[in-house]
Each structure stands twice: as structure tokens, then as C-alpha cells.
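Lab notebook, bench 4. The sequencing result for the construct came back, and we need a structural model before the next group meeting so we can plan mutations. Quick request posted to the team channel:

Model the 3D structure of this chain.
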Amino acid sequence: MEVFNAVGRRKAAVARVFISEGTGKIVINKRDLNTYFPSPLLQYVVLQPLNKLEVAEKYDIRINLVGGGYNGQAEAARLGIARALVKINPEDKSALRSEGFMTRDSRIVERKKAGRPKARKRFQFSKR
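Done. Here's the predicted structure in C-alpha cell form:
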């Protein structure tokens, strides 16, 4: 049984995804998908590439997630799953790309600048 792996990133979150043939079990950081992401919306985001290709019950997926918040982690997992599915079957790439699952969202938090309260915000200007 071959294991395919891929990495997905979003904001500060990094997801290492391992896919093998199985029954559709998804384990994230040694916890079930439903307990790790209680929100149905985030569960939907993680499952999007599998549902698009209709292979949700065909593979067992193990994901190591580190960093970021829950939304960034869910989107990182989605990218990692999509990349691993393309390694399994390269013909699926165009279908996943058309839905935007193969594109790495490169937007990250801008660093705070010296002498300012936040990255772009400035202190209140006083003329007198």
C-alpha cells in the first residue's frame, strides 16, 4: 500500500498530508476530523477536493497541522489534500485547479513597523 504525501500552507499554518487507500477516515493531529474541526464549515473546506473528485470514501488521510488559526489550518489542509490527490492521479489537476484548490494563497500578516502602533496604522497627528 503506497502512501502519498504533500504539504499545504496558508498564512502561518502548515499541513503535512499523508494519503493511502482506505475507507475515508481522516485523522488530524491524532484526532478525528469532527473533533479537530467542530465547525461544519471548516469540515466542508477540508473535504472540498475529495468531494469534487468524488473520492471521499476511497482514501484514508492523516494530517499533521502546526501553526496558524483554525481557518488557516483548514485551508492549508485543503491545499495539501489537493496536492496529494494530484500525485495519485495527475489527470485530476485541471478539475482541482478550476475550483482554485491548487493555488497557494500567499497572503500573510504584514510585520509591525517601528514607531507605529501596527503595520500601517499611525499615531494620531496633532497640528498644535
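The longest strand covers residues 13-21.
Will bring this to the meeting.
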